[in-house]
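Two proteins follow. First one:
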Amino acid sequence: MASKLCMSHLYYVIVKKLLTIGLLCLIGLNAQAQVVDSVKKDLFTAPDTVKHLHSRVLSLVVPTGLITYGVASFFIDPIRRLDYSTNNEIQKTDPNFSSKAENYFQFAPVILTYGLNLVGVSGKNTFIDRTALLGLSGGILAISSSITKHATHRLRPNGSDYLSFPSGHTSTAFLGAEFMAQEFTGKSKWYGIVGYTIATTTGVFRMYNRDHWLSDVIAGAGFGVMSTKLAYWAYPYIRNALTHTDNKTGKKTMLTPSYQDGMMAFTFVKQL
């Protein structure tokens, strides 16, 4: 009976944390859905109109706010005290909690995205463009997250090292959630909601395992979403620069990625 009560309380606290973080992220998902609904434009068309650019800037408000909240925890005492009180609550209610599930959760949205494609649910982009977008998102996140971790030098709640801020697992999970939302929200908002729910659960587990503070997780969500949004913003220009037609000669130039025998390569083609 005591064990059942403990588990019931655990689920209650987890749900409470899910609502705390997930509410902010689902607001971002809804904002993104509004952008998709209001601006019907193919990924690789002409440069942005003023209205389209304004919509994209607005879509960055939520991830910027999440990152700002995390950074504020270094300077605003009430926010930092919330980190400590949340950690203390977890230690009191579930001192023996231990799980490695988040090591798998963090990749679930990306795996689901490709899995849906395999079973016939087509996303916004082709396999090559989608993979390039994922790679660009990961590159942006790896650079920004690594620099921030070493610059902030924050000690983890478990005292294992000084790379607590932001949460890498959470960043990766939210990168994948936004990736899934970008590809499938045009078909149904539920795809994005599923991705964000998994990502939020990843962040909650990082706190329950004493690997991160609440502000680390919230900022991690912001870094992940921001990285994907920036990649989807920048990639059309990068792709058009690499695959274009010379206006003077009418000859085409193309650079495409390829994968064969375990090796990644690029193929450069120029019409002579």
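Second one, unrelated to the first:
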Amino acid sequence: MKITAPAKVNLMLHFTGRRADGYHLMQSAVAFADIGDELEITPSQAFSLIVDGPFAAHAPDGPDNLVARAARGANIAIRLTKNIPAGAGLGGGSADAAAVLNYLNRQSRALEIGADVPASLKSSAQWVEGIGDRLSPVDMKPMHAVLIWPGQGLSTPAMYAAYKVAGKSFHAPMANPAFIDIEFLKITGNDFTDTAIESLPVIGDVLNTLRDTGAVAMRLSGSGSACFGIYADAMGAKKAAGHLSAAYPDAWVRPCVLR
């Protein structure tokens, strides 16, 4: 069976508190792109995993791979083609694990593998709360977007640690939105943005360039380092992608549709 594991995009991300065990509580609207990693899964006499693709070097091919953790004890052979960079805030590894869990009907294990995995099981626009364990579907019309990863990743644990050290105040929880649109994005943000720019200043440049190319909204995704811009139509996104590729020749740039 061939499965596409779509890239996840945090359209917004607010922290609302921190539990006694140190886990951050958050609210986020997530959507999924029409691009992602590819998995080919077949029954086998024993488990095996082969990783290839342009970002194969970003993913371990041993037991530390989230795919291997999701498939624990299953006799299946998996070929994983990594099209999505790691350390990007695009949930590539989580989406890969979710694809395996869905294949094996092991959805109940999602949260133990990673906070982004429950949403990736759905692969459709979701309102996410808690530590990623509380999900509600949310209405959203498809959005034309450009994803850009500047060629350098950020460690999610390091970003959480830096955010905690910064001692930023938390947001009051929002009510579940009826739908996600540009107006909603304009009144929300990503709380990791300042910390990400401090760690990797090119992110600030990328966000400014997205604005200059006509994005009606632009933002960091997750803990970064990937950013995205939302455009009025497919032509605007395609044109912006060309400009961004020229401006950042070492970056990974893809126009896409978010749903």
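SUMMARY FIELD: The chain has two domains: 2-138, 140-258. The first strand starts at residue 2 and ends at 18.
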